[in-house]
Amino acid sequence: MNAQEKKTEQKTQVVEASCGQCQFGMKDKPGCDLAVRIDGKSYFVEGTDINKHGDAHAHDGFCSAIRQAEVVGEVKNNKFVVSQFKLLPQKK
């Protein structure tokens, strides 16, 4: 491997996950879309979908609650490109 092929290892991090429009106030696109908040900044997610993690409009769904998620990915072009997304159980 030469210096131009430097590979950056992505780390697992716990982030806030929710509906970008309903909970994070993002206005970039209409409808309901999964977003994460990292260090106070919100990003729409590419690589998984809001509906793959339960009913978004349920009482504990992304449109009604901000949840914690364990993710692996990186910010590219002002979006969070996820390679792993695991929704964590809600704290009682």
Task: Write a concise synopsis of the structure shown.
With 92 residues, the protein is an all-beta fold.
Q: Which helices and strands, and how do they pair?
A:
Blueprint: E1 13-19, E2 34-38, E3 41-46, E4 67-76, E5 79-87
Tell me what the structure shows.
Strands 1-2-3-5-4 form a 5-stranded mixed barrel. With 92 residues, the protein is an all-beta fold. The model has no long low-confidence stretch (mean pLDDT 90). It has no helices and 5 strands. The protein is globular, with a radius of gyration of 14 Å.
> Which runs of at least 5 residues are low in confidence (pLDDT < 50)?
none
> What is the spatial order of strands in the main beta sheet?
1-2-3-5-4
Please state the structural category: mainly beta
For the biggest sheet, the summary is:
5 strands, mixed, barrel
Q: Report how far apart the termini are.
A: 48 Å
- Shape annotation: globular
